[in-house]
Amino acid sequence: MSKQHAMGSALVTGASSGIGATYAERLARRGYDLLLVARDLRRLEAMAGRLAQEYGVAVEVLKADLTRKDDMRLVEQRLRSDASISLLVNNAGVALNGSLAEADLDRADDLIQLNVVALTRLAAAAAASFSAAGRGGIINIASVVALAPEMFNAIYSASKAYVLSLTQTLHGEVGKLGVQVQAVLPGVTRTEIWERSGLDEAALPAEMIMEVGEMVDAALAGFDQGELVTIPSLPDAADWQAFVGARAKLGPNLSRNSAAARYK
Fold first, then answer.
1. Which of these is catalytic: 32, 55, 156, 162?
2. Residue 8 to residues 72, 128, 161, 245: CA-CA distances in angstroms?
3. Could you give the CA distance from residue 51 to residue 8 in angstroms, rounded to a whole number?
4. Which terminus of the chain faces fewer neighbouring Cβ atoms within 10 Å, N or C?
5. Per-residue pLDDT reduced to its tens digit, 177-199
6. Mean pLDDT taken over the chain
7. CATH, residue 234
8. Complete DSSP assignment for 12-72
9. Does 2 map to a domain?
10. Is 156 a catalytic site residue?
11. Would residue 1 count as lying in a domain?
């Protein structure tokens, strides 16, 4: 980056629209320089010019399709080699609608490549770089369907459950090394992803749909508060803690030297 700020630089994937574009704007407002990654170069360049002028930060754009190995490795290498990057927003993702039995498996492959493989490789690169520096943050965008998979498509829901699990494990690995990790679990957010998936947003109750600015603001507030998991629409954090507590209670009995009595 040509201009360094005390905040460092934030690399945002899927930055040309929706959640990614909103993160870019909010982070620029906070004083981060930006490295914006997406496929749509025209949108990226327009946004970069606006954010640089409005907030006085350095904004670089990188056209990349993270379902393509060469593009994904280019971004991965940038994370490993650029010491100015202090925050990764792993946002790029796609959704599918419909049943698993009827799924277009080529599209499913692309979803897994983007939502799972690319996210994992970028998180790994950031974890290595940030751990060595003893600072930094990794924000992985998951979804509430990680907790309620029956709500939506099986492949998409499973990909977001993976993101949640990866984030929780990664926190245990790098949190003690000075790296902050967060999984964000939005509900339905008003972005282009649903139209692209084939889901009719108008068929959903209005009270289920959050505006993207409100979602990102809540997610960043959770990050500021040091939350590992942020669910922007959850009114009472005690409900999440009860869920975590119930899961912990299972722990001592998940692996034992004999089967439970009810199976004998």
1. 156
2. 22, 17, 30, 36
3. 16
4. C
5. 999 999 999 988 776 665 555 55
6. 92
7. 3.40.50.720
8. EESTTSHHHHHHHHHHHHHT-EEEEEES-HHHHHHHHHHHHHHH---EEEEE--TTSHHHH
9. no
10. yes
11. no
